[in-house]
Write a structure and sequence with these properties.
heterodimer; B: mainly alpha; Four Helix Bundle (Hemerythrin (Met), subunit A)
Amino acid sequence: MDNHGSYKSLINIWLFLMFLTVITVGAAEFDFGFKCSNCPLYRINKSRSSCISLHAFKA
Amino acid sequence: MGIFAITGKIIKSIAYPSEMVPSIEEDDGHHHFDPVTEHESAKLGMWLFLATELLLFGGLFAAYAIYRAKYPEMFMDGSKSLDVVLGSVNTVILIFSSLTVAIAVKAIQENRIKLVKVMLWVTIVCAAIFAVNKYFEYTYKFSKGIFPGTDIFYSIYFAATGVHMLHVFIGMAVLGILLRKVYKGKYNKENYTAIEIGGLYWHLVDLIWIYLFPLLYLVG
């Protein structure tokens, strides 16, 4: 039957997932200074909904 | 057949896989009863079930993608109203509970029954903490007059997290039944299929949340 690796490897995988979680939440919450006024799509259409990027709108 | 009857059958098939097939005395010669084949068959069945679960949530993710593309501002505003700290805490709790259930599977393979009991208990407690956090999140939204019908974002938010919450409750029931059977001495290093496929189910619950959390809380 299957072997699920060592306890140490399980904990290492968990630590790696924790690291990814912290990095992801940190990157999502950090203000990189993106603004709609800098977005070429916004400048062309003057419409926030025309923006296709995933960053928060800070027009 | 009602939803509760179906849910009951799913829980029973996970917790008591050997009872879902005829006993050896009733065997008509078309079933495999050597332990390795039964173990592999049960796991294959669980993976097929997990595939159907992915289809279920895939529909919700598709709805999210379509309506987000159609109403981006509504999703931006909706996402900002969600509590990122509470969502992050729940993410950490669920990932930790996946570790504990994986340790439980590893421990039963080594016949470390006491460790299995501790890890299953910790997993169930983590699931309960997740549910309590979700309860506070929902009641806060309701107190602010936000309900599933408020707008499309909240419809998808409540539908996706609600269906996920249902899976958390089913997972708690499955792990509870497994824990009870561990206390009764039903499992050992030769017979741990139920714990392994119960663990697989719990990993799915964790995995779904790993997608729900960034899509609903972080992509603002």
